[in-house]
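Please review the protein record below. Tell me whether the encoded fold seems credible here:
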Amino acid sequence: MERLNKFNFVILIPVFDCQQHIKELKNEIYKYLENESFFICFVDDSTNNDTCEAIKKYFKENFYILRRKKLEKYSTRFSASLDGFKWISKNIETNYIVEIDSDLAHHPKDIKKGINILNKEDCSLVIGSKYLQDSNVKYRPVQRRIISKVLTIICKIIFDSQISDYTNTFRFYNVKLVKDFINRKMIFKSPIGHLDNLLYMIKKKYKIREISTEYIEYNSTSTVKLKFMLRYLIEFFKCIFKQKFL
């Protein structure tokens, strides 16, 4: 594929059988980013073509769908994101990459705020934190709130107490940082890979900032993922041990 023209930022959106969200996702993105220079990279792990067809129906320009075949039953969110980062680095000239969820749990209205912080403070990563004072979190299941908070507290104690949210994947990356971590060996395909990546950035002393954000849990099936929680917890402690002692 020929390298595309330069965009100020690229929005990276992993998607999985979420065709019902695509129309609203498109509307909200263009409502808040109408005059911005951006490209969208979808990484599609879906079990059928419905999500892909919905994307093609509602998005008309400056987007690409990276189709993958997902074999695992558990979430491979990080491996999907990593493939997206690699595709973007190879094919698009840009300054920043923003990763968001497809179901509007991470709202596009916060994107310009994160990009502005990257610009003004010359930092490498901005995290949309669920735990800052002005953040707005709604409809999140109790189990997910407890697990996220406990994991974050452990990481604050062991690694960096200044970071308030270690689990949210709503993140804004300077493209120089992306070019650093995309060549790292991937150990965790699951969302724990995002944590491993963040701990790597902390160890490398990258400048990290946070913004308050809106996080609204629209996905009523998200609690089903709790059946894989034992796997994620084992991976979490492996990740902590690796980053702390190896």
The chain has one domain: 4-245. Residues 4-245 form a domain with the Spore Coat Polysaccharide Biosynthesis Protein SpsA; Chain A fold (CATH 3.90.550.10).
